[in-house]
Amino acid sequence: MKNDYELLNETKVDFSKYENIELNDLEKKKMKNGLRGKIYIKKKYNRKIIAVASTVLIVGAMTINTTVVRATIGQLGNKLEQFLGIKNNKVYDDYKKVIGSSVKDKDITFTLNEFLIKKGTAIVNVKVDTREFKKTKVITIFPNIYIDGEKISKGGSTIYKYNDDGTYEMLHQIKLKDIDINKDIKVDIEYSGGEYKQNGKEKGIYGNWTFSINDNGERITQNTKEIDINKVIDLGNGYIYSIRSIAVSPIDIVLKYNTTLMDEKKIKNEEYKYRDISFTIMDTNKNVLILENGITSSGDMITGHIECSMFLDNEVQDKLLIVPYKGPDKKYESVEELIKNREYIFDEAIEIELE
């Protein structure tokens, strides 16, 4: 049975519009060693298909995924909503901070555009100008996040966008330790070391590009509902999922569940049955509420825990549905057709009341 992402990867795409990022020897070594640790799944854009794709990175306790998007997509701008393709959810402005300050070191200028923090996640939108550096167009770099002096970041993912003037922008989704943000906090966003490619070789670069801002996560926390579910979905043939909980904020939904398909031995043997079934979020009229290409999942091969974070592209009312599905066996030309023709298993859907 083919899943959505295998079907999409058969789509013909002009590769000249996209750039592929290769792993260096250190990163490859980390991936091999990571079989003893955790597995992180990132559903994202890649060099074959910009609509939706699925990549598995096995890297231990920390993962940094990178996605590259060319500036030929003219509608992209500084707003994180435009980065993610969010069109209908208008509340992001209520929770993010627009900064606009710049820091320069090593002839490279970082400009912090936007910042948003919620429980377990920080979103950073930064612009980078390497034109004076002249050794490369892009450096691969990921920030550390400190709150009141304590480092709380645990890795995450990055989307790149290139601008026509030679600058580029990065949108980081950063996993955070579970700490109290329901108060006034001092946030430090620190870029200190990264890599760039020169004459085909990877080189390190070190500097100090740090931003300090004041924030408070109380409002978004108050508007987030966490609901224990503790229900089992048994689809037969070993496809058993224990749905633990769901958290609904104004900007995203976090679904937590367990499955025995997320098993270290099975992963080592390249048995990826856990990818056959996915979950989406709908309203009671069966309209999809989430951004399909903004899904990030992380899983633990020891415990079988999976945490799936989904950005909201539509407002959530008083009820929602957690719907399992499997992709069609037929090839479709567009993501919209593919989503429409999935095999949704509504008989096993779980209805959640939010009021």
From TrEMBL:
Domain DUF4179 per the UniProt entry, residue ranges: 42-119
Protein name: DUF4179 domain-containing protein
Alphabetically ordered keywords of this record: Membrane, Transmembrane, Transmembrane helix
Xref: InterPro entries: DUF4179
Transmembrane segments: 49-69
Pfam annotation, one family: DUF4179
Gene3D superfamilies linked: bacillus anthracis domain
